Structures are given as C-alpha cells and as structure tokens.
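Quick one from the shared queue. A colleague (R.T.) flagged Bifunctional uridylyltransferase/uridylyl-removing enzyme as missing a structural entry in our internal table.

Convert sequence to structure tokens.
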Amino acid sequence: MQTQRTSRQVLAAIGNQEAGRPAILDVEALRAECEALTQKHPPKSDALRSALLSTLKKASTEGREKAKQFFLQEGSGLNCAYRISWLQDQLISILYGFVITHIQPLKADDIAVSAVGGYGRDTLAPGSDIDLLFLFPPKPTDAMRKAVEFMLYILWDMGFKVGHSSRTIEECIRLSKEDMTIRTAILETRYICGAAALVKELETRFDKEVTAGTGPEFIAAKLAERDARHRKAGDTRYLVEPNVKEGKGGLRDLHTLFWIAKYYYHVRDAADLVKLGVLSKQELSLFLKSEDFLWAVRCHMHFLTGKSEERLSFDIQREIAEALGYHSRPGLSAVERFMKHYFLVAKDVGDLTRIFCAALEEQQAKATPGLTGMISRFAHRSRKIPGTLEFVEDRGRIALANPDVFKKDPVSIIRLFHVADIHGLEFHPDALRRLTRSFSLIDNALRENEEANRLFLSILTSPRDPALILRRMNEAGVLGRFIPEFGKIVSMMQFNMYHHYTVDEHLLRTVEVLSEIEKGRADDIHPLITKLMPGIEDRETLYVAVLLHDIAKGRQEDHSIAGARVCRKLAPRFGLNPKQTEMVVWLVEEHLTMSMVAQTRDLNDRKTITDFAERVQSLDRLKMLLVLTVCDIRAVGPGVWNGWKGQLLRTLYYETELLLAGGFSEVSRKERAKAAAEDLYNALGDWSQKDRKTYSKLHYQPYLLSVPLEDQVRHAQFIREADKAGKALATMVRTHSFHAITEITVLSPDHPRLLAVIAGACAAAGANIADAQIFTTSDGRALDTILINREFPNDEDEMRRAATIGKMIEDVLSGAKRLPEVIATRTRNRKKNRAFVIPPSAVISNTLSNKFSVVEVECLDRPGLLSEITAVLSDLSLDIHSARITTFGEKVIDTFYVTDLVGQKIVNENKRANVIARLKAVMSEQEDEARARMPSGIIAPTVVRSAPVAKKAKSDA
C-alpha cells in the first residue's frame, strides 16, 4: 500500500531524483546544531523552544531556496517536488527526535509520524499544505499527545500550513470504512519517522480489511468525485485561466488514476501498470512527462506568488512562459505558445484517463467470478446496431465488433462518431483506446475520401447534438487530424480577458449555440434569429461557416482573410457546391463586421447603415451573418453576451433590411422631424395646449428622428416635473432586464465637459457605461441618456443601484462632490493590470459619417478612462454628439461622433494630429497628468453652452 516515487526508470531520463538532495540540507550538521542548543538553554524553556524554532526555520528557508535554484537550472517539476518533500522529511525527523529526547521523553517507537495526501506521494509543492498522520498505539498517553502538540506548534510557527490527525490504527481502519476521503488519505500513507512497525501494521490491515473486495466501490466514488470537481471548475479543460491542480486535465486527474491503480491493482509504482498491460510504454512515458510538466508549472506558480496558488492566471502566465524558455513565433506570442502546450498536456491527461478506464473495465470483467460473472456477462452482452456491421452496442455505448475495424476500413474512424450520433450512444473506452492507437490511418487518402467527408458533414449538421460529437472527436484527437487546419488551433489560447476558452473549444461552443437556436431553445434570448432560422434553407453552409470562422487564428495575417482562404479549400472537400463555398468564404471573411459596426458605430447615423448595406449586399447574407455573429459572441464565454448587444444587432439588422429591400423613406429629414414633433404634440393630449407646444418644440432633428415616441413622452414628463420642482439638475432611471442594461437620463444645464463629468461619476460609482445618447434642447439644456451594464438580476436591487449612481452624478454636477476625489477614492487600492499590453491607438475618420468626424480610441481599460478621454475632447473644443463605449475584456474601443464648436468636421491636419497626440497621452501611463487635467466637477446651474454652439445646433434642424 505504501506510496513510492513515480517510475524510477523514467525519472532517470528527466533527472535523478536523488541529485541535489544532500546539497540542499546537511542533515547531520543540522541535527548536531539542534543538539547543541540544549547546552546553551535550560531544558523545556521558552528560550530553548525559540532557539529551536529559529534554527529549523533558517534551515527550511535556505533549503527551499537551494531547491528553487536546482529547479531553475534543470527545470524538472517532479524533482523539485521530491526535493522539497525530502527536505520536509528531514526537518520533521530532526524535530521529532529532539522532542522525544528533550521535551517529552518517549521511546522512539512510541509514535509513528507519516505523511498523507500529496506529501504522502513524496511530492510537495513550494506553497503546499503539509498533511501528517500521527499514529498512536492502542492506549496513547498524555505525553504522546503533548509531544505531537509541541511538534505542530513548531511547524505552524515556522510558517507551514499543517493538516493533521492523531489516531490509533483501529480508528484509522474504522474511519476509512466510513469516509472515502479518509480512505484515500490512508491509501497514500508514507512513513517518515518514529514507530515504523505501526505504519506497517496499518498497511497490512488496510489492505486486508478495507481494500479487499471494495475496488469497484472505490473506483466509482473517485470517478464521481472527479466529475463533480470538473463541473465545479467549468467542466472543460480549455479555460484560459486553468486550475493546474483541480481543473480538468490537471494534476488531480493524474492523482485519481494513480489512486485507482494503487487501490485496484495494488501497484507501488506507475511502471508496474505497463507490466499489467494497463498502459503501454509510450503511454507511461506520456503519463510521466505530463506529470513533470504540470509540476513544473505548479512550482513556478508557487515560487512566483509566494503562496499556494493553483490558478494559472493572466498575471503570472507571461513570467512562467519566460521561465520555461518559450519564445514568440509569427502569429503566436511566447505566452500563447506556453498555454497551447499546457492545454495539449491537459488533453493528454484526458487521453490517459480514457485508456486507463478501458483497461480497468476489461480487467474487472475478467475478474468477475463464477455464476455471478456469467449472469453479469449475459446481461451486459453486446447488441447489434441496425445498419452497421462494424460496431455493436455495449450498455448504451458504441464498441467495435472486432479489433481490426479501423485497419480494414479507415473510413470507420469517422463512421464511429456518425453511428454514435444517430443512435445516441456514448463511447466505449476500449473503442477510444483503439482509436487513439490508429491515428496513423488518418492520412490524406482518408481526408479526401468522399464518404468520410459526407459522414463528417452529416455529423456537423446533425439535428441532434453536433457539438457533443464534434467535442468527442476533438478530445479523441480525430478532428484535428481529419482537418489539419483545425489541428493547428487545437488547444490554442488567446492571451486576453475577452476569450474564456481555447480557439477549438470556442468553435465547438459556437456550433453548440447554433444547434440550440435552431431547435428553438433560445427564443427568449434571441427572438429575431429564432424567427429567421426556419427561413434559412442552406443549413450546411451556415454550420460550416460557424465551425470554421476562426480556423486561421494564430497566423501573422488577419485571421478573417486567411480563414476565408482556408474555407475556399475545405468547403468543396466537405461536399459544398461553388455557390455554397462562396457564401462560406464571405461569411468567414466578414464574421467580425456586424459585431463591430453594431457595437462601435452610431446606428442612428444613416451612413453607418448605407456603408454596412454595401458590404452585405443581400438579405440572405444579412440573415446568415446575423446568426453567425450571435453564435460567435455567445460562445466567447459566460457573461459576454447580453441583451444590449442583442438590441444593437437587431437595430442594425432591421435598418439594413429596410435599405436592402428598398424601404428607406424618400421623405426629407426635415419633413420627418416635423412629423415626429407633431406626433409628440399629439401624444401629450391630456396636457394643456401651452405645455404641449412648449415641450414638443424642445428638441432638434437628431432627437426626434432617433428616439422612440414612447421615450419622447417619458422624457417630456420628466422635464416638466423637473421644471415644476425648480430643479436645474435631475436624473431619471429605469431598468431593462431583457437588454441587461440600466438607463440613467440626466437633465442639466449644457456644458462642454458634461459627458466627461457624467462618465467620471459613473466610474466613481463603479458603473460600466455601454452607450451614451447626447442631445441638446432648444432652451440650452442637455438631455443625456447613459446606458450602463446591469449588475443585479433583481429589478429592485438594480433600481437602488441606479438611483445611487444618479445621485452621484447630481452631486458631482452640482459641486457637492469633486470628481477627482471620488475617482481617487474608488481607484486608490486598485491593482494596475500589468498582465496585458495594448498600444494606445487613436484614429479620426471623416468618411464614416456625413455630418461628424468619428474619433475611435483603442487601449487598455482602467477606471476613469472614459472620463479622462471625454475631458480631453472637451479641452480641445470638440462637441461630442454621440458615443459608443465597447469593452472586449481588458481592451476598450470607444467611438465618439464629434464636431468642432461651429459644427464642422475636423479637417485641419494640424488639429487632427494634436487631437490624436493628446488622446494617446491620456491613454498611456501618464495617469497623474491626465487626472490633473480633469474637470473639478463644479458646474454652476446657470452655465450653458456658448451661443455659437446653440446657434449651430438649431441650424442643423
């Protein structure tokens, strides 16, 4: 039962585990130094205890530092874990000997000190807990308990986190029968010092009284525990910030395999699994290499953070990639290459799990004795699957009819997944094991085989669960080999906070979203495309485009253009005709266009719609592009999609559909604005004629043509109530649960810095602005609507939050609070994001709008950034007419539609250059300078926009 070190043979190849151990600690010298303390200090005195603590702590610190240096030189994570474990053993042994000799005199064999958990496997990460089991004889004395207590307090004072239990052998046996966690811990018990006979007796009784005959029970419990752990961690190994210890494909999965092997096969070394036929030599080598890599990553994490950090976060990924020697290559940074290696290792762990479980099931079947075994085999015998001779059903799982199925016909590799899809079968571990060992059969002949491609396209467009089968193909290693272009993006991560998954996992999730929408299961989230889907007859084209839209990620050129070129080759291979191929190529090349236009352009500006319509050109393209866009955003990660993005896409779709169908009104803007003002006048029917006339004439053309009548009436009521109350400043809030957005409308005396102040107040209140609609009334006031991302699911909670933000805006505008102070309070303790580098970019375009210059900025996000940018635009005498605020993880792309103070575009080259320079300065690290330029936040209620601006605004009408 005793845990031994992992495969000495393979360790010899990656570095002798004994090398460097004496060099990190001179055991005899330390023991002599501790003994000498008894000559300097009174027995059992505080001074003796303090001196002992200091001596052991110093030895531990120096030993760990030496272990770190060995690790940095040779790079083996397992060797590092072994050295630290060995160091800990020596410290505990010396401490135990000192205690039973000088503190609580006992016989050396009265107590056994043993390691359990990861420490029991003779591996210890730099920041890991130390799990100890103190074994007592049947009748432990107070002296024994006090000796253990003294040891624990010394270890705690040395800075170790110690998990411990003190039990007799009888208690260990009883508790291990009742509790699977305790049973696992005792399975890994390893003797350190003290009474070796007690540990030996525990091993013997544990094998005889606990493990005997309970193998299936233990296996089921461990696999269920693993599945629950995976669900908690997100049930995918492709999270871009994985948990190296507990995540899917992490160290705990390897530990689970070894626990089961030890329990069921009674092996002491992973190499023994080769002798038993469970793993091949190549698979054992993969097991050990995977374990060593994961340990190397984990040790680096602990050394870098100085604590037991198990999450491989963005903050440390760059440093670990550098420490492990990764370098950038065209299309992939060093950190992305490191993380791709990590995910490939995690995938290897999954492969090993399948192989191991297949062997385990086969061994269990052989081991079932007598009549029970005959009944079991009869009940579980294979059944024929209609329509196929190659495969059979075994307890709801597809299995091979004979071992040579793939060798006889390599197309059966693809057919295996097709049949499983049609009949709703899981995969027998043995079939997957044989599949893994048949990869050489997936060659160009199979890739170009017409039947293989027909079967694949059927899987991709399955009305059942195509993403599930594709994921099984990917996990088995088939998808990346059958489509080599897909293989290049398997396990590829993108080093940003926006994408939550690797590229291959993102693509499979995109297919999953499309299938969900097609089945009508997302009509509450996507009412428009749920309505459109039945009218899209060419399902094959749409599914192929969805699967391949990011196929060219990681290349030097734009992945949309490169992806279109890849699709031109792959689509005909899959069986698509020339017309379908051209549609796939276009969709992949334009797959980001609709999202970027909807989120970063003013959809009330007609040129936005006409430019987009020119790129789309047909209603079929528009429908398919909308579906692809929605699926793409939904599959990025949890929380990325929201109703507000859906509303922006619907608006863009409806406006473009109208134009493509020839439905844009030929009536002039002036006539339409006049009609809208009359509609507002009529909608205020229960008001006095004077009020109806006053409040229907407050607004200019942009407001009347872009704001729905329902909102115009609500705004009119809001302004009238503020006027009656004599309020120069007022705010109104409402929530949109479907859009996941909260609306704050601000009525204020107009001022060039108004948006900057409002943005700063929102930042101070912790609100993320998604959009801003900015209007000026004919009496010199500003009516601005700020849309912020919703935070609470409950409307009452969200309304309270919005009211607080509204009050903050009012306080800042009135001068009751100073903006720099409230933002400083909010951001004082915020850690700067050093993990990402986004060069600040500012572009001014005069071709995106007929009336406005469009200023687009792109940079690393930070609190108060929007306020600083809008303050700069105000400093430069630019009038902001509308804004689009878009966040992609750590990156922001903010777009402002602006004019100068006389309502003209920015055409002077010197001024354009000055605007760009000032914006880049505020987006860079010059935060203190930027904050110094921020407005004071005091805006007197009587201040209004200068006369020339008001005059120009009126002329626009």
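The two ends are 87 Å apart (CA to CA).
Residues 1-17, 369-379, 926-957 have pLDDT under 50 and may be disordered.
Added to the table.
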